[in-house]
Amino acid sequence: MSQARLARTLNLDRSTISRWINGSRSIHARYRPLLWQVLGADLRS
């Protein structure tokens, strides 16, 4: 999944996703369950 698509899905800025990925910003606790829902199927494959 692209950063842009994930950002749209979570209603966030793409730059926020980029910061999560490069480690310059931690993932806020409220987004962790949403990330698992969105990415869980991809991670299990």
Automatic annotation (TrEMBL):
PROSITE patterns in UniProt: HTH_CROC1 (PS50943)
Pfam families the UniProt entry points to: HTH_3
InterPro entries assigned to the protein according to its UniProt record, in alphabetical order: Cro/C1-type_HTH, Lambda_DNA-bd_dom_sf
Superkingdom, natural source: Bacteria
Native species: Lyngbya confervoides BDU141951
CDD domains associated with the record: HTH_XRE (cd00093)
Domain HTH cro/C1-type positions: 1-27
Organism ancestry: Bacteria, Bacillati, Cyanobacteriota, Cyanophyceae, Oscillatoriophycideae
Protein's name in the database: Helix-turn-helix domain-containing protein
Family annotation (Gene3D superfamilies): lambda repressor-like DNA-binding domains
